[in-house]
Design goal:
51% of the residues lie in helices and 4% in strands. The chain is mainly α. The radius of gyration is 25 Å and the shape is elongated. The relative contact order is 0.09.
């Protein structure tokens, strides 16, 4: 549009595309600054510190290790980069997820015309059955515990399927002792409730009587108390155990006991039913036969 002196209003010029994906010249040499902007927005959206560290680590390595301008990358260059990384298949898949999210964000903000990953398929990852604590191993773990705190941690992990951090963040005011219900803040600042059984209730009462925590005080000191305990129990009993293996046990046994998969999803705090199915993958055809009921009866 002509100005007062007859000259045209300057327009923002994009660098001439050499690969089908245009990028603003003002940002073409500032990928690290854009990564920081991307992360700032993700923090604002409420993503967990662990997720932020995931994005920061993979994107920083991508920009530092790539031998091409990251903001003008082609799909072929990205594919070759990911394929060349000396890491596990899961690591290459993680690179893909972080890189894809970054380019989608760049395109949404107008820094590039189109995300080069828009129609790019994720690298395949082997899908071995993930370990779950065997149900008959839990009594041995409980016997190996040395304190009421230890017994409560193991019992709640098995009874609720809580994440390690979720368990460590529980305060006395989160617990409804009468109804055996705990209010939990999970990933993405999402609140949910979980329940526990009579055995866990007994351990809970025993532990609270000993420690007498106040309303906003966490009942477990920190996440490392949980981590160290499970490592010690593993060494003492020879039974492999961590918080996630208890989550898988919870998911598998809940489905085997007839719980609706949507209810299991809610208790685990999964945003996707796909993830719940992964956790309950040890439920097999024999379990299905036991649960089968004829339609015509």
């Amino acid at each position: 549009m002509a100005g007062a002196g007859g000259s045209r209003t300057p327009r923002r010029h994009r660098r001439a595309p050499t690969n089908g994906f245009e990028v603003l010249p003002s940002v073409s040499n500032k990928p690290h600054e854009l990564v920081n902007s991307f992360l700032t927005e993700k923090v604002y959206q409420g993503l967990s510190p662990e997720t932020i560290r995931f994005y920061r680590g993979y994107l920083t390595r991508y920009i530092n290790k790539s031998d091409f301008p990251a903001l003008a990358a082609t799909q072929l260059q990205i594919t070759r980069f990911i394929s060349s990384q000396e890491c596990t298949a899961g690591g290459r898949h993680a690179y893909f997820r972080a890189i894809r999210a970054f380019y989608i964000w760049l395109a949404s903000k107008g820094y590039i015309d189109k995300a080069p990953t828009s129609d790019m398929k994720a690298p395949k990852v082997p899908k071995p059955i993930r370990y779950a604590v065997p149900l008959d191993a839990i009594p041995a773990l409980m016997t190996a515990c040395n304190s009421s705190q230890d017994r409560l941690i193991v019992s709640l992990l098995a009874d609720t399927g809580l994440r390690r951090k979720e368990l460590a963040n529980i305060t006395l005011s989160d617990i409804n002792l009468d109804d055996r219900i705990i209010t939990v803040w999970g990933k993405g600042a999402k609140q949910r409730v979980v329940c526990y059984g009579t055995v866990s209730a007994r351990y809970m009462s025993e532990y609270l009587d000993e420690t007498e925590p106040k309303g906003q005080q966490t009942i477990i000191p920190n996440v490392w108390v949980i981590t160290n305990l499970l490592e010690e129990l593993g060494e003492k009993t020879g039974i492999k155990c961590n918080a996630h293996s208890f989550r898988r046990t919870f998911a598998t046994e809940s489905v085997r006991n007839g719980m609706n998969l949507f209810h299991v999803q809610s208790l685990l705090g999964h945003s996707s039913l796909t993830m719940t199915r992964i956790y309950a993958e040890q439920v097999n055809s024999e379990d299905a036969i036991k649960a089968y009921k004829p339609i015509v009866r």
